[in-house]
Specification:
The protein is 39% helix and 17% strand. It is α+β, with helices and mostly antiparallel strands. The chain has two domains: 265 residues, no CATH class; 79 residues, GMP Synthetase, Chain A, domain 3, CATH 3.30.300. A five-stranded mixed sheet has the order 9-10-11-12-13, with helices on one face. A hairpin with a 2-residue loop joins strand 10 and strand 11. The longest helix has 18 residues. It is globular. The termini are far apart. Pfam families: AlkZ-like. This is Winged helix DNA-binding domain-containing protein.
Length: 365
């Protein structure tokens, strides 16, 4: 008989694999590899994501990896920016090309109608060859000279789907915002990409970091489709469970399954942290009514589930951490959130003269 797993059991399993039950002593590079990358739409969230998982993590630990080209920032899963190890980028980027083709067409196909995509890719490649780096506006203007009348932004953004390009530092480093630079991935890394990697490899990496999960969950995380056949090929090598509604959940053999009553600490998640985005069914972490909020603001996990949102703002010399709660916290919960909030302020706003923590309801703005 197939074992049934509750949402709480899935919650504990995923939290442990996401290194959110106990801070790890693994290196930042090893953690990024284990997590199959970090969501990196903005520069600061990956740093918060690593701080929440690694004991003693420092800002310079990730910045150094970016500068050493051991980690790269690029358009990958779901057509969004991710930080991945250079080794993973080498095989993941070619594997995601069909998905990125669909992403480009859906996002920018109308604005680039009539443009020969092969010519667009070659024009961009020529502009970047020889180690040249152009930011997005520069590349867009250059391409628009060849295709006048086309939206320069759409042309430049299309390149992110058509070509393996990365966004080198200082882009993506702590506190740095500005025009996104483009560099050819193979030139930046000094090595060719690896074609022919199997989708099975990607599915297994996902399960190691996010399982147990359904086929739809894997598709939601990666942005790829038609993975049922891939998982069926893997079925003899996988454990199969049933969810609360009878859905099939797949997992790696002997992967950790902590008990549903396992105590977990308060965690301040990074904005758009994959842990709350990487499942089609997110009920292991939150109710459906909370899903729209975590797309806009980073979440706070209390007893493993989304109970609040957070943000830090500077007010003269004071860094104010505001915790906006979906429902009132108990006295012990509030104390635990406060203690972790103090640690977060020390990391993210250590240069502020004063720190302050405020609590408010979610709809208080």
């Amino acid at each position: 008989m197939v074992e049934r797993l509750t949402a709480r059991a899935l919650n504990r399993a995923t939290l442990q694999r996401q290194l959110l039950t106990t801070r790890t002593r693994l290196s930042p590079l090893a953690v990024i590899e284990h997590l199959a990358g970090l969501q990196a739409q903005d520069p600061d969230p990956p740093y918060i994501g690593l701080w929440s998982r690694i004991d003693g993590f420092r800002i310079e630990d990730l910045t150094t990896l970016l500068e050493q080209r051991a980690v790269v920032r690029a358009t990958l899963f779901r057509g969004t920016q991710h930080l991945v190890t250079a080794d993973d980028y080498q095989w993941v980027r070619p594997l995601l090309q069909p998905m990125l083709d669909r992403w480009r067409k859906g996002g920018f196909g109308r604005q680039t109608a009539g443009v020969d995509l092969g010519e667009l890719a070659e024009a961009a490649r020529g502009a970047l060859t020889g180690g040249r780096t152009l930011n997005r506006p520069e590349l867009g203007r250059l391409l628009a000279e060849r295709w006048p009348g086309c939206d320069p932004v759409a042309l430049a953004r299309s390149v992110q789907g058509l070509l393996p390009v990365v966004h080198p530092p200082p882009d993506g480093t702590w506190g740095r915002r500005g025009a996104t630079p483009f560099a050819l991935a193979e030139e930046w890394l000094g090595r060719s990409l690896t074609a022919g990697a199997s989708m099975e490899r990607l599915v297994l990496r996902y399960l190691a970091a996010f399982g147990p999960a359904t086929v739809k969950d894997v598709q939601a995380w990666s942005g790829t489709t038609r993975l049922r056949a891939v998982v069926e090929e893997l079925r003899p090598r996988l454990e199969v469970f049933a969810g609360e509604n009878g859905e099939e959940l797949f997992d790696l053999p002997d992967a950790p399954l902590p008990g549903p009553d396992t105590e977990v600490p308060v965690r301040f998640l990074a904005a758009l942290d994959n842990v709350v985005l990487a499942h089609a069914d997110r009920s292991r972490f939150m109710s459906d009514d909370r899903r729209p909020y975590v797309i806009v603001e980073p979440a706070v996990l209390v007893d493993g589930v989304v109970r609040a949102l957070w943000g830090i703002k500077r007010q003269k010399g004071t860094a104010v951490l505001t915790v906006k709660c979906f429902s009132p916290l108990g006295a012990r919960e509030k104390e635990e959130v406060t203690d972790e909030g103090v640690r977060l302020l020390g990391f993210a706003a250590g240069d502020a003269e004063r720190h302050e923590i405020r609590f408010a309801p979610v709809d208080s703005d």
